[in-house]
Amino acid sequence: MRLPDSFYSSVRARLADALDVRGLDGFLATSPADVAFLSGFFYIATERPVYLWMPREGDPLLVIPRLDEEYAAQQSVKIETVSYFEYPGVVSAEQTLGTALAGRAAKQIGVSAGLSIGAYRALSRALGGSTLVTTDAVAKLRLRKFPEEIPYHEAAARICDEMLAAGRELIADALRRGTELPREDEIARHVIGYGTDRMYADYDLVVYTTKLAGGLVYAGPNSALPHGLPTRRRIQPGDTLILSLGAAVASRFVESERTFVVGEPTPEQQRYYEADREAQEVGTQAMRAGRTCAEVNRTCLDVLRGHGLGDYLRHRQGHGIGLQNHEAPWVEDGDHTVLEPGMLLSSEPGVYVPEHAGYRISDTVLVEEAGPRRLTGYPRDLASNIIEEVR
Q1: Does Protease count among this protein's keywords (predicted)?
Q2: Which residues have C-beta within 8 Å of that of residue 100, sequence separation ≥ 6?
Q3: Of 323, 371, 326, 324, which is closest to residue 348 (Cα–Cα)?
């Protein structure tokens, strides 16, 4: 379950080069995703800080709560570790870090732009003469996935596609039996449970930064709310249904989302579905190295505008995926990042018609030299996503 030591050695070597270019003595990781990326230590974020010091030269240092000492050892984290007892603590995490770094050459310390003001002030006091400088050094490294990471994303994609099939089957089974159709919340519990069970069945040590598997399930008029939470509304014949699912292996995320129709689609449902499917296909094929995120987003969403559906757009085409299910780059008009091989993106245009329904198809797409490659492969055509009683 743990990535090979060669991965972390490669990451640290590239980070050292990036710090050198920026004139920084080291980087202080403060977020779960950055800590996991640089060290292999996965933990649940609470009020107790975790700090990972990555010097440009010399050995890294991990500062953790004492309650996590055994858990770090279980994960075979091969980094010098010091601990503090509790939060806020007689001796704080920041003071523990300051004491551990005393005497080390650390005048210019890079931190991520997401560091809170409170943590910034506490660290500045504890680190004395050091200057904290926001840097994108680690964020840039995370934009392109290392070869060792890809198999974990691929494994998560397989599980995520199976979760879609499990959700569909729950509804289809009720139709076959002639029983009540499940509620949105029941479907959500079912698919999340399925994905979590698969994770524990396949891997002896399960690690993650936020979650193993998750999902949004909404049907009928509720599906017109892009981030609406599952309700106790029962699925009904004729519903448009969105299963918006995600899974992670070693906290390498994917998402796979499909729109289903319960019963024979109406002409209106066919129109919206096919427009969204076309936009998703065009947008996915546009995810090629050398194009900007903004250009790809416009290419995708212009398909929907061309179908006269511009008023029903509520979000961009997609976003980056990695150790977090949403991270840079952003496939949106305001992001001019140039796509490069190794970038992993969602392609998920959506159409949301108030009081009617929403339509969204999403795949996780890897940008390669030869072009885009979908990691998720659940069928996207309408015929494959009609759920009806088999007679």
Answers
A1: yes
A2: 53, 61, 63, 82
A3: 326
C-beta neighbour count of 43 within 10 angstroms: 19
What's the length of the chain?
A: 391
- 239-257 as b/e, with b when 16 or more CB fall inside 10 Å? bbbbbbbbbbbbbbbbbbb
In this structure, the strands spanning 240-249 and 213-219 are: antiparallel
Amino acid residing at 102: A
Cα angle 113, 93, 18 (rounded to 5 degrees) comes to 35
Cα angle at 301 between 218 and 309, to 5 degrees?
65
Mean pLDDT of all residues belonging to the chain: 94
Q: What is the distance between the alpha carbons of residues 254 and 164, in angstroms, rounded to a whole number?
A: 13
Task: Say which DSSP state 79 is in.
Answer: S
Report the candidate in 60, 36, 1 with the shortest Cα–Cα distance to residue 209. Answer: 36
Q: Can you say whether residue 314 is alpha, beta or left, with left for phi > 0 and alpha for psi between -120 and 50 degrees?
A: alpha
Report pLDDT for 202: 85
The percentage of the chain sitting over the pLDDT mark of 90, rounded to a whole number, equals 86
Q: What is the DSSP string of 171-219?
A: HHHHHHHT-PPPBHHHHHHHHHHHHHHHHHHH-SS---SS-SEEEEEEE
Three-state SS annotation for 4-49: CHHHHHHHHHHHHHHHHHHCCCEEEECCHHHHHHHHCCCCCCCCCC
Q: In which band, very low, low, confident or very high, does the pLDDT at 204 lie, cut at 50, 70 and 90?
A: low
Q: How confident is the model at residue 311 (pLDDT cuts 50, 70, 90)?
A: very high
pLDDT one-digit tens code per residue, 138-191: 999 999 999 999 999 999 999 999 999 999 999 999 999 999 999 999 999 999
pLDDT band (50, 70, 90) for residue 200: confident
Can you say whether residue 370 is alpha, beta or left, with left for phi > 0 and alpha for psi between -120 and 50 degrees?
A: alpha
Residue tagged 């640089």 (tokens):
38
How many whole angstroms separate alpha carbon 256 and alpha carbon 274? 18
Q: What share of the chain is helix, strand, coil (3-state, %, to 5)?
A: 40, 25, 40
Rg (C-alpha) for the chain, rounded Å, is 23
pLDDT category at 391 given cuts 50, 70, 90 is very low
Q: Give the confidence band of 128 by pLDDT, cuts at 50, 70, 90.
A: confident
